[in-house]
Amino acid sequence: MPLSTPVPAAEYEACPVTDVLRRLSDKWTLLVLTLLGQRPYHYNELHRAIEGISRRMLTRTLRVLETDGLVAREVFPTVPPTVEYRLTPLGVSFLGPIGAVAQWAVAHGDEITAARRRGGLTPAASRGD
Amino acid sequence: MPLSTPVPAAEYEACPVTDVLRRLSDKWTLLVLTLLGQRPYHYNELHRAIEGISRRMLTRTLRVLETDGLVAREVFPTVPPTVEYRLTPLGVSFLGPIGAVAQWAVAHGDEITAARRRGGLTPAASRGD
DNA sequence: CGGCATCCAGTTCGATACTG
DNA sequence: CAGTATCGAACTGGATGCCG
Predict the structure, then answer these.
(1) If I label A88, which of B20, B58, B59, B81 is the partner at 20 to 30 A Cα–Cα?
(2) Is Cell inner membrane one of the keywords (chains A, B) (predicted)?
(3) Distance from C-alpha of A19 to C-alpha of B101, rounded to nearest angstrom
(4) What average pLDDT does the segment B9-14 reach?
(5) Taking the complete model, does pTM exceed 0.85, yes or no?
């Protein structure tokens, strides 16, 4: 019954790898992780550092990372309130794998660009020449 | 003028890293790449192997990978037609970085799961206890 | 300062049906 | 066998406004 399937969608925890990959690519996660890898940041500090991000997305991103245990959130009972975010050991351990992909991307970025230019708009077309 | 910005959205090629990450996480790419890393596959062979994927998405995924130069597509003029997909050297070179992330995900998957369980539904709540 | 709730546009993905 | 085309549902991400 494809018309009334209440499938929650997000049921498929396919494999942990895909799960992790999807999380990283929610557009800001990687950037936030990279920044926090350098030093702890305050909420608005991150907001200014990334600059293109909305408060909504920054909060969401941090929440996910916190929930997954990659980022720690510490509240200082000052006035006005201050909140600091930093990488947990688990978060730090993830910088390595990220780095591997990052290095590959940087190293082969031009190859991909070149391939795209060749493929252009008709990747499968003009194939049976 | 935030009310009439015609921003095409998809203009920001942020950094090659984010770009690559987003590509990988389109839900099927990683899986396809992993399968092709083992051996060449025919179109329907991939379709059967993944099983949850629709033809539409399989085709799109393969197109992107082909356009980016990670996968090669070869048509055999048989009847009925046969098409074989295989990793290019660039695609093969990417198995390493993917492996790094994959290994991390497998190794720390339970930690993430545990963190999520702890955080539960109130990650930020009950923090000032 | 830090954060959440609501609304809304753009994109992604699946189901389905049709072609060579 | 190997796709392509179209539609609609779901998800993502941004803008805005209110609260502690």
Answers:
(1) B20
(2) no
(3) 11
(4) 44
(5) no
Domain definitions of chain A by residue range: 9-127
Strand C footprint nucleotides (protein C-beta < 7 Å): 1-6, 10-17, 20
Q: Which of A19, A34, A107 is nearest to A71 (CA)?
A: A34
Other Cβ atoms closer than 10 A to A58: 19
Pick out residues 83-122 of chain A having their CB under 7 A from any atom of nucleic acid strand C: 83
- Percent helix / strand / coil, chain A, rounded to 5: 55, 10, 35
Per-residue pLDDT tens digits for A89-127: 999 999 999 889 889 988 998 899 899 888 765 444 333
B45 touches strand D (CB under 7 A): yes
Rounded CA-CA distance A66/A119 in Å is 41
Chain B closest-CA separation from residue A29 CA (Å)? 9
Q: Do B17 and A101 lie within an 8 Å CB cutoff?
A: yes
Gap from A16 CA to C16 C1', in Å?
A: 31
Protein CA at B126 to nucleotide C1' at C17, angstroms: 53
Between CA B101 and CA B98 the distance in angstroms is 5
CB A105 within 8 A of CB B17: yes
CATH topology classification for A9-127: Arc Repressor Mutant, subunit A (1.10.10)
A10: pLDDT strictly greater than 50:
no
For residues B9-27, give the mean pLDDT. Answer: 69
User: If you measure CA to C1', which residue is closest to nucleotide D11?
Assistant: A9
